[in-house]
Each structure stands twice: as C-alpha cells, then as structure tokens.
Amino acid sequence: MRAPAAGSPLEQELRTRFQQGVVMMHMREYEYALSSFHRVLAIAPDMPEAHVNMGFALIGLEEWASARTFFEAAIELNRNQINAYYGLAVTLEALGDMPGALGAMQAYVHRAPEDDPFRTRAVAALWEWRTAAREAAENAIEAAEDGAGEVGGEATPDPQGAATAGEGLPSH
C-alpha cells in the first residue's frame, strides 16, 4: 500500500494520529498510543516509525513479545531505523535474550550519531551487560573449580575401598 497523497484528508489523519500517539506515549497513556499507532499502520502499513512507536508503547505495557515483533518489522522495513535497534535491545533484555540484546544495542551504537541523546545510555547498557556476563562466567568457573574437590554428587570410596553413594545419588 502506498502512502496517502500529500495534503489529502487521509494524509492529514495519518499525521494527526501519529502526533496523538507520540503525545500519548509521553503521557504514559500506552493504550491510547497503541490505538493511534494502530490507525497509522492501517493507513500506512510500511511506515517504520509507526512500528517503532508501537514497540515502545508495548514496552510501556510490558508486552515484550509483541514489542519485539514491531521492532523487528521496523528494522525489516528500514535497516537504518536506529531507534528500532534500541527498542529491540531493551525488549530482548526483558525476554532474557542477552546475546540478542547485546547485538541489537551494539547495532544501535554503531549506527547512532555521536550526538544522539540515547547513545550514552546505550553505551552504559552495553558496559553493564558485558560486565554482568563476564562476572557470571567468572562465578561459574569458580563454582566449577570449587565443586571439583568436593564430595557431593559423586560416588566416593569408603575407608574399606567399597564405593558408597554420595549426596544426591540414590543408594542401594
């Protein structure tokens, strides 16, 4: 579907609804924002900005899976829709997909201009997520090393040389 003709009543409605949705999001009236952006997408289904704003409204409602779908659609429509990468990263973090969140946020930082107002937040999020992943890996290694010398969970010889069931294993 093509965009409505410039100056047409449909194009005016598109602009009005889009602006209403933006205002509603700023007011944290996410349901009303969704209604406005839904109408925008009915008029112009290939408008990536409307997909992004639907995603952000859905984040406001904590509807993470639906938000992900809209951010991915925006990226599919326009690979340079940088705020879609930011929203996708936030959504993937909430869904527990940290590798995906890191990738999306890195794509945002890579594409965002130096003066982008959200760039500092994005860099901070990347640092935080990478630090948390590194600490989790270090803790897992320490736990594995600490567990290697312990008895629990494995059969161990008794003083007489016969194997006995360790903690967590069934005994016969």
Report the CATH topology name.
Serine Threonine Protein Phosphatase 5, Tetratricopeptide repeat
How many domains? The number is 1
Spatial ordering of strands, largest sheet: 1-2
Name of the top-level CATH class: Mainly Alpha
Give helix % range. 55-70%
Please give the largest β-sheet: 2 strands, antiparallel
Explain how this protein is built:
- With 172 residues, the chain is mainly alpha-helical.
- It has a single domain (9-133), classed as Serine Threonine Protein Phosphatase 5, Tetratricopeptide repeat (Alpha Horseshoe), CATH 1.25.40.10.
- The protein has helices at 9-26, 30-43, 48-60, 64-77, 82-94, 98-111, 119-148, and strands spanning 156-157, 163-164.
- Strands 1-2 form a two-stranded antiparallel sheet.
- β1 (156-157) and β2 (163-164) form a beta hairpin.
- The longest helix is centred in the C-terminal third of the chain and has 30 residues, at 119-148.
- The chain is elongated, with a radius of gyration of 25 Å.
- Residues 152-172 have low confidence and may be disordered.
Task: Show the helix and strand layout.
Elements: H1 9-26, H2 30-43, H3 48-60, H4 64-77, H5 82-94, H6 98-111, H7 119-148, E1 156-157, E2 163-164
Antiparallel strand pairs: 1-2
Helix pairs in contact: 1-2, 1-3, 2-3, 3-4, 3-5, 4-5, 5-6, 6-7
What keywords describe this structure?
172 residues, mainly alpha, Serine Threonine Protein Phosphatase 5, Tetratricopeptide repeat, two-stranded antiparallel ribbon, 7 helices, 2 strands, 67% helix, disordered C terminus
